[in-house]
Amino acid sequence: MKVQGQAWRTVWLNPDHSVGVIDQRFLPHELKTACLREVADVEQAIREMWIRGAPLIGVVAAYGMAVAMRQDSSDAGLFSAKKTLLATRPTAVNLRWALSRMLTGLLPLPREQRADAAYALAAQMADEDVAINQQLGQHGLALIRTLAQQRPGQRINILTHCNAGWLATVDWGTATSPIYQAFNEGIDVHVWVDETRPRNQGASLTAWELGQHGVPHTLIVDNAGGHLMQHGLVDMCIVGTDRVTARGDVCNKIGTYLKALAAFDNQVPFYVAMPSSTLDLTVHDGLREIPIENREGEEISHLSGWHADGYLSTVRICPSNTATSTNPGFDVTPARLVTALITERGLCAAHPQAIQAMFASVG
C-alpha cells in the first residue's frame, strides 16, 4: 500500500540477508524500520509487538527460521528455532501454521541446502499472503459494491476494530482489503475506526494507514460503535481474525465480541475477513479451546502519546495501587453472531458444514 505516495510492504529482505520490517511501536508519529539479523531479534520483534497481526507474524516467523538456518542449519538448530519462535504469541494460529510449514519443507533437506531453501520458502509465503489478501478483498468488494448500488448517492459506512490492515499483513490487509479496493474503484466509503484499547491499534495504526492511502475515516472510542449502529450510521462491520475454529467461532482483538453483539441487535451485517491460514480445523469450541493471551498490566495503566513539545511520552492514567493484572488480548465471537466469513475462496457461512466444504484441503 502507499506511504507518502510510495508503495510499501511491511516486511522485506535486505541485501545482507537480514529481515527489514516497519517498527510499528513508533506509529503514527514516526515511520521507523528495524533490521532483524538473528533469531533472537525476530523473537523480540514478535513478542514485543514491533510487528503484529496474525498473517504478518506468520511470515516474519518464517523469515526468522531462515535467519536461524544461516546460524545453525542442523536438525537441533531447526527445532530450537521453531520452539523459540512458537513461544512468542500463543493465540494467533498463523504463527504455528507458518513454522510447521517451514519445518516440513526444511527437515528433509541436507544441512547445506536449508538456508537458501528457507529464504525462498519465506519469500513464497510473503507473496502468497499478498495474493490471498488481494483476492479476499475482491470478494469483500462485491459486498460493498452491491450495497452501494442499492443506495445510489449514499456513502457506505464501515466499522472495523483493531488493525486488520496492510500493517497486519504483508500487503492489502484482511478487513481493509475490501475497503481499499472499494476506494480505488471510486466507491464513496467511510470507515469508523475503533481506538482499540489498550494498545490503541485503531488509533495509531488503522487511522494512519487509511490516511496515508486517502480513505475517509473517523476515529471513535471503543464504546461508540453500538450507539452509531442504533442510529443507522453503520452499514456493515468488517473485522479481522487471529483464529477461526472448525465451527466458525472467531477469535480476534478484545472488544470484537461486543461489536458483534451490537451488530446482531441492530441487524448490521458482521463480516470477518479470514485468510485460510487463520482457520484452525483442530479446534471446535473457541471459547474453551483457544488460549487467550493475558498481556502486561502496564498496557492498561499507562498511555503513550506525542507531547506538544515534540517528543514521545508515557503517562500513568490510574492509581499506582490499582490492579491491572487482567488484560486479555483477545476474545471469542460465537459463530452465530457472524454474518459470513470473507475468504480468498469466496464468502463462507460461519457453520461447520460450510467451512468443511470450502476448506477440506486445509490442514
Automatic annotation (TrEMBL):
Catalytic activity: 5-deoxy-alpha-D-ribose 1-phosphate = 5-deoxy-D-ribulose 1-phosphate; 5-(methylsulfanyl)-alpha-D-ribose 1-phosphate = 5-(methylsulfanyl)-D-ribulose 1-phosphate
Enzyme kind, highest EC tier: isomerase
Position of the signal peptide: none
This protein's record includes keyword Nuclease: no
Keywords: Amino-acid biosynthesis, Isomerase, Methionine biosynthesis
Entry keyword annotation includes Chloroplast: no
Site label Transition state stabilizer, positions: C162
UniProt pathway annotation: Amino-acid biosynthesis; L-methionine biosynthesis via salvage pathway; L-methionine from S-methyl-5-thio-alpha-D-ribose 1-phosphate: step 1/6
SUPFAM superfamilies membership: NagB/RpiA/CoA transferase-like
One Gene Ontology MF term: S-methyl-5-thioribose-1-phosphate isomerase activity
GO-annotated biological processes: L-methionine salvage from methylthioadenosine
Pfam families: IF-2B
Residues reported in the UniProt entry to bind substrate: R52, G53, A54, R89, Q201, N252, K253
Active site (record annotation): D242
Enzyme Commission number: 5.3.1.23
Functional note: Catalyzes the interconversion of methylthioribose-1-phosphate (MTR-1-P) into methylthioribulose-1-phosphate (MTRu-1-P). Also catalyzes the interconversion of 5-deoxyribose 1-phosphate and 5-deoxyribulose 1-phosphate. Part of a bifunctional DHAP-shunt salvage pathway for SAM by-products.
Entry similarity comment: Belongs to the EIF-2B alpha/beta/delta subunits family. MtnA subfamily.
UniProt-recorded name of the protein: Methylthioribose-1-phosphate isomerase
Protein species of origin: Rhodoferax fermentans
Organism taxonomic ancestry: Bacteria, Pseudomonadati, Pseudomonadota, Betaproteobacteria, Burkholderiales
This protein's encoding gene: mtnA
